[in-house]
Amino acid sequence: MRIGVTYDLRSDYLAMGYGEEETAEFDAEETIAALCGALAGLGYKVDRIGNAKRLVERLAAGERWDCVFNYCEGLKGLAREAQAPAILELYDVPYVFSDALTMAVTLDKAVCKRIVRDFGVPTADFAVIERIADADKVDLPFPLFLKPVAEGSGKGIGTNNKVADRAALKATAADLLGRFHQPVLAETFLPGREFTVAITGTGDDATVLGVSEIVPLAGYHGDGYGLVNKEDWHGRLDIVGAPPDDAKATGEVALAAWRALRCRDGGRVDIRQDAQGRPNFMEVNPLAGLRPEYSDMCFIANREGVSYQELIGRIMASFVKRHPACRP
What we know:
Elements: E1 2-7, H1 10-15, H2 29-41, E2 45-50, H3 52-60, E3 67-71, H4 83-90, H5 100-107, H6 109-118, E4 126-129, E5 144-148, E6 162-163, H7 166-180, E7 184-188, E8 194-200, E9 207-216, H8 227-231, E10 237-241, H9 244-260, E11 266-273, E12 279-285, H10 296-303, H11 308-322
Parallel strand pairs: 1-2, 1-3
Antiparallel strand pairs: 4-7, 5-6, 5-7, 8-9, 8-11, 9-10, 11-12
């Protein structure tokens, strides 16, 4: 059973001249090596494909795989995570993780929140700022929290995202619009504790693998789990197992959002409590980090006694249930 692996290697893009922040979502060689090793351990013959352009080249040259472990983030566009899935669907190649539609709507945080809200999942009130003039139309109580509408890995989250008045709202909106060239999401600030929920499986078979609480320390950077805090967490935060009652409540909200968005196989959902301690959906990551001893999902798996090999095995078991012919 030949499985291709698509991915975006951070070092490749850095070598092409892209910056550290631009490439923050992309993967280290360590991640891809571990992933390929786990797939080989499950009985697959692994072929490293690379990014979406390499995928197009090899498909156009006539190459095929029994299935593909799609781990491509994409580089450009508000639907960039949907590019590799759409290409694979065009060529009728089965692939792991969510489909092109889910990848597109979950990357756009505003569209994503509208969907989960329609399903009755609690999420903070929000507005979208597409141009600076829209900041005057935001009719939400302060404080607010602003972030780019379609970035991952905490990009765009630093020390000026929590705003207490209209002047700060305009200043931060202008900064984010100028830096990321995409709309800005303005949300009612959730002042409570923050959690991340690891999920494996699809639909009714989806289950919570575990829940981590993000506990800020003295060196915490800003008011959110942003890029600086994610990449250099020592002295900035602790990542601990959530207490049972909190794990249950946040897990229920996360699973409801996961199913509403039709996410597949494995990923993470971020949750934050409001002033009353009620868990609210923030965002979902259907392409969660899988770097051993570094990524949140791997931390959770390790704490729950699930090895890296078993974690990838659970993801693949969900995929194989959808595509039984792809069992090794």
